[in-house]
Amino acid sequence: MTTYPTLFILLQAQDGLITPAQAEEHRLPSRTLRGRTQNGDWERVAPRVYLAGGHPYDDRARIRAAGLWAGEAAAVSGPAAAWWHGMLEKAPADVTVTVPRRLGLRGYPGFTVRRRDLDPDDVTQVKGLRLSGHALTALETAIAVPDGSAFLDRALQKHVPFHEVYRAYCRNMGARGFARAAALLIAAADRADSAAERILVELLRAAGLSGWKVGLPFQQWKIDISFPAERIAIEIDSWAWHTDVQRFRTDRYKGNALVGAGWTLLRFTWHDLTNRPDYVIAQIRAALFTATATA
Length: 295
Fold this sequence. Notes:
- By secondary structure, this protein is α+β, with helices and mostly antiparallel strands.
- It has 3 domains: about 1-55, Orthogonal Bundle (Arc Repressor Mutant, subunit A); about 65-175, no CATH class; about 195-295, 3-Layer(aba) Sandwich (Endonuclease, Chain A).
- It contains 13 helices and 12 strands.
- The chain has helices at about 5-15, 20-25, 30-40, 60-70, 80-85, 135-145, 150-160, 160-170, 180-205, 240-245, 245-260, 270-275, 275-295; strands spanning about 15-20, 45, 50, 75, 95-100, 110-115, 125, 130, 215-220, 220-225, 230-235, 265-270.
- The strands form 4 sheets. A 4-stranded mixed beta sheet has the order 9-10-11-12, with helices on both faces.
- Helix 5 crosses helix 6 (about 135-145) and helix 7 crosses helix 9.
- It starts with a helix and ends with a helix.
- The model has no long low-confidence stretch (mean pLDDT about 90).
- Keywords: Endonuclease, Hydrolase, Nuclease.
- GO terms for molecular function: endonuclease activity.
- InterPro entries: DUF559, Restrct_endonuc-II-like.
- It holds the Pfam family DUF559.
- This is Very-short-patch-repair endonuclease.
């Protein structure tokens, strides 16, 4: 190996893996590559992918081998990408790679090929491996694993914000399995809404505000949080209506009905509650002051 110093660096960076084209670039002749494989020093782990002696063929090498085998236009996807991103504890037995529709690549034992033209925003590179980005990976893995709902919740809490996952969903709407993704996304949004409501309650308590109620009935709906005496309604804009047209319409009907009935309507987002809590409380105080002054 001392004869090929740049090759040694490449092998270290690629978990001991190399393709014939890379070998040629680093001045390792094809006959030498074949010879090392024939005498057992190196191992062919996939078509056009070789493992140098002294390197284990572990999960990292296996997933990287799939990417090298599929080529520069491919992206490791789904649970394998989730494992690479640190979103899954256990690597999957089968590695999925997404390739452009124009490529005629067929599967190989342990490697599954899926044809889809990915948006550049859905592709990233981590430690030299081209793979799907966090947001698309979270969605595709949630579809694939048995506990998809729990996985998506963990991903949203630790790895990727909801708005990025939603945008990835929009870019891939209509793709195979994405009807299931929509259902998982709406359910996750509902759970996020409950968390947002709890945050607002904590903000109101910390600010010393009283006289508010959670879930006050109003016509056929319930107001998220309200100050009934002052007729102030506070609605938390739901992420769920981004993926559910009917829910979006219902939110708007409800808001219009509140305003028509003489209520002051305040709307806040998750971003407001978590990043601008002082703004939220200031808006509520201002509305309370106005309501009291005009009573």
